Amino acid sequence: MAARGRHRYLAERRGFLATLLISPAVLFIGLLVGAPLGLAIYLSFTDATAGSLSGKWLGLGNYRAALHDQIFRDALWHTVLFTVISQAVVIVCAGLLAHALVRRFRGRWLLRFLVLLPWAAPIALTAIGFLWFYDPQASIFTWFLVHLHLVDRSNAPNWLGTPHAAMSSIITVQAWRVLPFATVIFLAGISSIPQEVDDAAAIDGATGLKKFWYVSLPLQLPIAIVAILFGIVFTATDMVVPYILTNGGPFNSTQVLTTYAFQTGINAGNIGEGAAVALFMLPLLVVVTIGMLFFARRAEVT
Amino acid sequence: MTGRWRHHAFAYAVAVPFAIVLAFPFFWMAVTSFKPEAQVYDPTKVWTFHPTLANYGFLFHHTGYLRWLRNSTFVGIMVVLITLAVAIPAGYALARLSGRVGRSLGVAIFLTYLVPPTLLFLPLSRVVSKLGLSDRLWALILVYPSFTIPFAIWLLMGFFKAIPQELEDAALVDGCSRLGALVRIVLPVSLPGIITVVIFTFSLVINEFVYAITFISSSTNRTVTVGVPTDLIRGDLFNWPGIMAAILIPSIPLALVYNAFLNRFITGFTGGAFR
């Protein structure tokens, strides 16, 4: 009886200590993520402008206005394109690349370093590099294409100056940046498969594609999906690449939710409207969150 | 032997082209950064140009570049300190809290890392100005831990979980308090993990763009990621070689350190989730 009492006392003390250790973090996150999120939702229902924390209550006015705004609807569609295309490219390339880099060969360290560069360097800076690579007069990409006789110097693409080219250009940069991250996580997934599984598969006669499809893929999938979900969030909610390369132009053809929220909320000073635009990202975040919880658990079970 | 050769051939055939494509922009930035301005617009001069350091000199002496680097470093160090102070205790407690509560709380904290700055910058810009922190580096130091803390807690949880409970139990039996065990046993053992957290937190801070461009308005208070695109691009000068130098100077050291600690990062990142 006494022993049990002491045990419970200890358990309680332990719980108390844990609360003490965790509470600063919870407090910080609550104040700097939870509260602003609530404030964003509140502001999106008002006509608040720069310089005030509140405004007249508009109800769903900002949301209705956004949905009737052609630029906003285009921005929503561009966000989908930007995310889906860049991430599709990333998944295919990262799968291939990870299967190559997982093997032990000479020069692997150097190749891995080179592959990682786009993710390790600050994107706000490297995106400016692409501003130069896409320069209408001195684009190195145009130079390559001309020398490979793929295009003529006289009708060389204006990488950031025409709507379709601009969208492709920013998608390329985003894929370039996220690919190393996805590769690294895929690599972790592949290397986490125990050697015994490989051996067992070999004994059962599974080789090549068959082994990949029935053994390796199901085991890697949960981690791979977590990487993909991350990529989707990073891309759909990212502002840096479109902001620096095109800032939504030309003619709003690369306007995405984030750049439009920035232009509405900060440049034009309509905080309420801007908040409403940004909050259209929330459903996506909720879906991704649920997916993450589901697959993280699956990963743990396997 | 042939199987082995084929094994390697596949690796090279895939990895080499990818590495070239992914790293090429950095090569081209480096080439451009050493070109004299007159030859910049001539891409044919890949090897046959007169390399010069003038662009680097220009960057250091005639722009706010060094100042922006200093600002970024200062913010980075302060945020790393705050993050460690908050995340180490929380990460430790969450790693040792058994059962559903600890796990759910850990996941919940991690999920806040998914809430993007692009969703929070508008309300936070109002809060920052109400606090009188507009255009001050302290605004960034206050706000950045909102994403570095969840990230760091997650990594640290992964590292702490990897430390056998028996180590601490032994210390407790020897009369150590729980906090004493944390400081004397757990922290020294997990030092490599903590250094990993420092590096990746610092790199998150250097990378941040949205808050920095929203909160900071004067040139002297900019961080490097905002100073370069706003003052060197939108300004009247278009010194491309200088800009390329400005990109490479922080990128290369960051990439080297990043690469060195990547394996540990993966251990922590996946360890928190999949263990």
Architecture overview:
The complex is a heterodimer of chains A (302) and B (275). Chain A is mainly α. Chain A folds into 2 domains: 1-44, no CATH class; 62-298, MetI-like (MetI-like fold), CATH 1.10.3720.10. Chain A is built from 13 helices and no strands. The longest helix of chain A has 43 residues, at 2-44. With 275 residues, chain B is mainly alpha-helical. Chain B has a single domain (63-273), classed as MetI-like fold (Orthogonal Bundle). Chain B has 13 helices and no strands. The longest helix of chain B is centred in the C-terminal third of the chain and has 34 residues, at 240-273. The chains are: A mainly alpha (302), B mainly alpha (275). The interface between A and B is large, with 99 and 96 residues.
Provide a short characterization of the protein structure.
The complex is a heterodimer of chains A (302) and B (275). With 302 residues, chain A is mainly alpha-helical.
Distance between the termini of chain B: 38 Å
Q: Largest interface, by Cβ-Cβ below 8 angstroms: which chains and how many residues each?
A: A-B, 99 and 96 residues
| CATH topology tier name of the largest domain in chain A | MetI-like fold
Shape of chain B: globular
Sketch the topology of chain B as an H/E string, one letter per element: HHHHHHHHHHHHH
Low-confidence stretches of chain B: none
Q: Beta-sheet strand percentage of chain B?
A: under 5%
Distance between the termini of chain A: 41 Å
